[in-house]
Amino acid sequence: MNIWDKIIIFVGIVIIFFPCRIWAREDVSTEEIQEEILEDLDLKEVEDLVKELTGEELSFLSLLKELISSGQALDWSACKEVVGKMWQCAWGIQKETCIQILLLLLLTSFFSNLSGAFKNPQIGEMAFYICYMMLFLLILRQVNQFSVQIQDALEGICEFMKVLLPSYYLAIAASTGISTASVFYQMIIGVIYLAEKIILIVMLPAIRFYLLIALVNHLTKDEWLSRFTNLIKTGISWALKAMLGGLLGVQLIQRLLAPAVDSLRQTVLGKSAGAIPVLGDIFEGVTQLILGSAVLVKNGLGVVAILCMMFIGAVPLIQLALHGAGYQLLAAMMQPVSEHRLISCVHTMGETILMMFRLLLTVEVMFLLTIAILAGTIR
Known about the structure:
- The protein is mostly helical and 379 residues long.
- The chain has helices at 3-17, 30-41, 44-54, 60-70, 76-90, 95-117, 121-175, 178-219, 226-274, 279-334, 340-375.
């Protein structure tokens, strides 16, 4: 007896002695199969966490069921409402800090011109150092607030992926195969490790250290630490690009191997079961129905997970982009009338905020690419 005969006998025994409730009924529908799959995935913990992170604005299960049934998770009116709320939350630019920085720049320019009128440079120097220290404290306080905000957003995204991972792993294993599911599990664990251990512990403090060194560097007219600040800035940029490129390359390579292995296994099992007289056609038809529903649920989970991550990170991203661009615009407008060292500080503040923006965006893109590449993997 060869291996094929053993496989056929085993499949026949399983079908006869362990009948599944799904194909025991003739009037079974894809909607019922999808409901049973969603119940088996147990997404209640994911639902509770999404409501907690989004302030009851999103419902994971409602979005998933709507997407599976109609093909759209949000209609146009709902999208406009959600985007409007996010924009209102993100538009909370700290006007007081901007006004204080603007007044400091104007005050420094006034004292500089006043000292020139009285031919006493000491007044201008004293006014500059006083204003510089006040600006120094304002910038550190503002960037520290953004740092806490980014940390909260990254921790929320990582916690969301940790809660979603077991359910999504089961959906992938049921629809595509255990090899693809294992690769996805390893990739998500790797991205979570990068976000928690590298991004939060190394990269985010490095950005704050860059700001501190740059502010000290602008205090002197010769800028003795300019090359050191450029080195830190370049290192952070290269590290983010290396993480994103390395993760994308590994995912593309794994995508070529794991789905092929799962497809081969499923083809062998399907052909073997289809060769069984009488029961073969029934088994093959029901299997295709179940796998098709599992693929739909898996892709639906991926799309809703992407929407939830975008919603969680949208407000911090918009705030960082607006503040970074706004402070650089303020520096450009005040450059003709204010002291160049103070202008350099404000410009550096804008650069630092935009570096934080790229940091958070890189983490979100790594998660999104992992899910998007996997969602495009069909057996």
